């Protein structure tokens, strides 16, 4: 313990956060509208001086909302990579303590630690709703504490010198004043058919299936998040490679039935036809199959 009264050491950022390196980022597959918004933001940040001559400033804050597994974290990481900066990822829920005043102190310590960083970086505040929920009028200590955290966050957002991205699965819970403080609000939803096709293709690689089969898989996974699509395609590759070793058939219907039994969208999400409709599995039984390894030096090719 330090003997200095009121001395608050600046804690290391890694006490609160995970630092993601730019070189480890992977670009998410997004809708054209979101892709454009991201490109606009990058152009804007590069045009700081030009904008200044018109009395304008580039936006420095963004709020990403939308269901889990649709690419909020992936997008923030990709964005930091495009700027060549590390991403400081903080799960805001981890700052919550039951000690009176403790959560607010953790929020302060976090911002102190970020300010003390010598290297420029992007701050990513995940599960932002856990500290920025709507203010309530109540006399209970917990309500007062929550309200004062929201007020202090408003001031922190206004004075933060760098680029800040927040994310939430629960946009309805965010305090409206906090919501408006962000320079941009992007909603990242479940992918449409074009995006699903691209996501399925990416995560099936290096294996490939005929286009007709990819189109069917796109259709039967309507409503699924990219995270589920990835799990499905990675599971498919694993199963096709290993099924003979556990003595199971590798026909399309057999493989997909095993996958459906072990990969499942969360109950809060829309259940895609693959999990609910008998026509989906019947069509799968008839689709062109099996996947092939498209690499020239693949074990199959040699
Ligand atoms: N739009 C996307 N395109 C490609 N892959 C995605 C996309 N969204 C999510 N993923 C994959 O799903 C996983 C979870 O995504 P994540 O970015 O953590 O979602 P979120 O932060 O919205 O909950 C990641 O491993 C990522 O590879
Ligand atoms: Mg996330």
Q: What does it look like?
A:
The chain has 302 residues and is of the alpha/beta class. It has 2 domains: 175 residues, P-loop containing nucleotide triphosphate hydrolases (Rossmann fold, 3-Layer(aba) Sandwich); 101 residues, no CATH class. The protein has 12 helices and 8 strands. It has a 6-stranded mixed sheet. Strands 7-8 form a two-stranded antiparallel sheet. Helix 7 runs parallel beside helix 9, helix 9 crosses helix 10 and helix 10 packs antiparallel against helix 12. The N and C termini lie far apart (65 Å). The mean pLDDT is 93.
Short overview:
The protein is an alpha/beta fold and 302 residues long.
Task: Break the fold down into its secondary structure elements and pairings.
Layout: E1 17-20, H1 32-46, H2 48-52, E2 61-65, H3 72-82, E3 87-91, H4 102-115, E4 122-126, H5 141-159, E5 163-168, H6 176-181, E6 184-187, H7 193-204, E7 207-208, H8 211-220, H9 226-242, H10 252-262, H11 273-276, H12 278-286, E8 292-293
Parallel strand pairs: 2-5, 2-6, 3-4, 4-5
Antiparallel strand pairs: 1-3, 7-8
Magnesium ion binds at residues 72-73, 126, 167.
């Amino acid at each position: 313990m330090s003997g200095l009264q009121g001395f608050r050491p600046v804690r290391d950022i890694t006490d609160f956060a995970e630092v993601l390196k730019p070189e480890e980022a992977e670009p998410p597959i997004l809708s054209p509208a979101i892709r454009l918004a991201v490109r606009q933001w990058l152009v804007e940040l590069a045009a700081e001086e030009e904008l200044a001559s018109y009395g304008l400033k580039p936006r420095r804050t963004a709020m990403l909302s939308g269901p889990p597994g649709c690419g909020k974290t992936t997008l923030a990481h990709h964005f930091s990579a495009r700027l060549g900066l590390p991403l400081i990822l903080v799960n805001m829920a981890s700052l919550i303590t039951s000690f009176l005043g403790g959560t607010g102190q953790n929020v302060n310590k976090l911002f102190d630690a970020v300010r003390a960083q010598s290297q420029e970086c992007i701050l990513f505040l995940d599960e932002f709703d856990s500290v920025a929920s709507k203010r309530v009028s109540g006399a209970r200590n917990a309500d007062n504490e929550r309200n004062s955290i929201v007020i202090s966050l408003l001031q922190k957002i206004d004075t933060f010198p760098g680029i800040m991205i927040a994310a939430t699965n629960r946009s309805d819970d965010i305090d409206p004043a906090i919501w408006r403080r962000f320079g941009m609000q992007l909603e990242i939803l479940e992918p449409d058919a074009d995006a699903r096709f691209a996501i399925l293709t990416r995560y099936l690689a290096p294996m490939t299936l005929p286009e007709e089969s990819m189109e069917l898989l796109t259709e039967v996974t309507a409503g699924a998040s990219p995270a589920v699509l990835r799990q499905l395609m990675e599971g498919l590759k694993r199963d096709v490679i290993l099924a003979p070793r556990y003595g199971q058939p590798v026909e399309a219907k057999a493989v997909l039935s095993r996958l459906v039994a072990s990969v499942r969208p969360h109950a809060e999400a829309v259940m895609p036809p693959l999990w609910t409709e008998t026509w989906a599995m019947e069509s799968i039984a008839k689709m062109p199959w099996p996947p092939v390894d498209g690499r020239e030096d693949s074990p199959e090719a040699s």
